[in-house]
Amino acid sequence: MGRCALWLALAFCALLAACATVEEVAKPACPSYPPCPAAPAGTPPAAPAPPPAKPLQPARWSDVPGWDVDDPAAAWPAFLQSCRGLAGKPQWPAWSAVCEEARTLPGKDAQAIRRFFESRFTPYLLTNPDGSTDGLVTGYYEPLLRGSRTRTAKYAQPVLGVPPDLLTIDLSEVLPDLKNMRLRGRLVGSRVVPYYSRAEIADQGLAKIYPEKVLLWVDDPVELFFLQIQGSGRVRLPDGKMVRLGYADQNGHPYKAIGRVLADRGELPIEQASMQGIQAWARANPSRLAELLDANPSYVFFREMPRPQNAGDGPQGALGVPLTPGRSIAVDPRYVPLGAPVFLSTTQPLSAAPLVRLVHAQDTGGAIRGVVRADFFWGFGAEAGAQAGRMKQQGKMWVLLPTDFVATP
User: Fold this and answer.
1) Which residue intervals of 21-133 are DSSP H helices?
2) What pLDDT, on a 0 to 100 scale, did the predictor assign at position 21?
3) Within the chain, which residues score under 70 in pLDDT?
4) Any alpha helices (H) in 59-149, and if so which ranges?
């Protein structure tokens, strides 16, 4: 019994040992993969655009080149005209003191006038939103046309007054921030829609619809077109009498330069796209003239002006005073206050010869848009027209404002 029990004990221990020895199963190796590519560097956010430059940058008199060379007495009559135009207007309080003092100064004493401006005014350099200070300076003039009170085979182009269906809405009455902004249109039922374009005015036959609004009939469609661009002019009647026309309103469509249209079509080199170049093209292409003129949808309506007190007075500008040849300019009133003196530094038409002088902001124009932008008034007649038609120069402008004037633009 003892021997059997011993063998049984040994067998049981061997069995336990066998149960305790468990073969470990090898785990499969993880497959190898190429390393992940590095994440691309993120594009840094664009730097915020700088705010637009302020249109009026304070300057010193020593910063105004040519100020001490020009004769300010030559511009003095135009300044007194500006004072007359500003009197009674909302901005008059800012100008009354300097205008009252100006009336006491001797008008031919250049040094006294220069000291007056230097002591009572601050120059501001006009600056574009991108910070540049150069801009376009063009020219305009008062043309002479031939016309008649009645339509004939010769005089067949109507000069229109303001039609009765033209609506002019002053947007500043809705939003004060929209000063100097006007909306023009016409009523169709209860809706206000854009007024007729130049082509539509011809197609509608506005002269037939409103015959009482025809002021005169002239003989040349090209001269009538340029009369609208200039904004004023004179018409000589068959009996020799002269009629003066002034800007009354506009159809609300944007101005488009037909010289640029001809250049874009490859029909006229851009350097020849002046008034004279366009007139030459029109004479050579009479059958295509109407289509070219209609490319500019803007259309100007006129009013007959009273006979001026002085025969030599220029046309009346937007300020309501006669323009002075060589000393009046048209500006964008959003940036340059009407009536303000402006020191202009540019060059003569098609020349590098300097044209540096004191002028006065007394007019506006449909094509005069932007901070550094001026239209230089050359005067009346063919010679003035020749100069104006060639002028497309670069220039700088300093607005002179009374020292206590609050420059808001």
Assistant:
1) 76-86, 92-102, 110-120
2) 40
3) 1-43, 177-180, 407-409
4) 76-86, 92-102, 110-120
Give me the pLDDT at residue 10, please. Answer: 39
pLDDT value of residue 8 = 38
| H/E element, 386 | helix 382-390
Do residues 139 and 389 make contact, with C-beta atoms less than 8 angstroms apart? Answer: yes
Domains defined along the chain, listed by start? 56-256+296-402 (2.40.40.10)
Q: What does the alpha-carbon distance between residue 326 and residue 143 come to, in Å, rounded to a whole number?
A: 16
pLDDT value at position 41? 63
Taking the C-alpha atoms of residue 215 and residue 163, their distance in angstroms, rounded to an integer, is: 11
Name the residue among 89, 242, 53 with its Cα closest to residue 99: 89
* Among the listed residues 175, 169, 312, 296, the one whose alpha carbon sits nearest the alpha carbon of residue 234: 312
CA distance 363 to 369: 12
Closest listed residue to residue 358, CA positions, set 89, 57, 113, 112? 113
pLDDT for 32 equals: 58
Instruction: State how far the Cα of 199 lies from the Cα of 215, in Å rounded to an integer.
Output: 20
Helix ranges, 21-109 (H): 76-86, 92-102
**Nearest alpha carbon to residue 366 among 255, 291, 292:** 255
Q: Which residues of 383-409 are buried (b: 16+ CB within 10 A; e: fewer)?
A: ebbbbbbbbbbebbbbbbbbeebeeee
Strand arrangement, sheet containing 157-160? 157-160, 214-218, 144-148, 232-236, 242-250, 300-304
Q: What's the one-letter identity of residue 396?
A: K
Q: Is-contact 401 337, C-beta < 8 A?
A: yes
Using an 8 Å Cβ cutoff, are 186 and 193 in contact?
A: yes
Distance CA 379, CA 187 (A): 39
Other CB atoms within 10 A of residue 39 CB: 6
Distance between CA atoms of residues 158 and 149, nearest Å: 10
Strands 373-380 and 135-142: parallel
Other Cβ atoms closer than 10 A to 275:
23
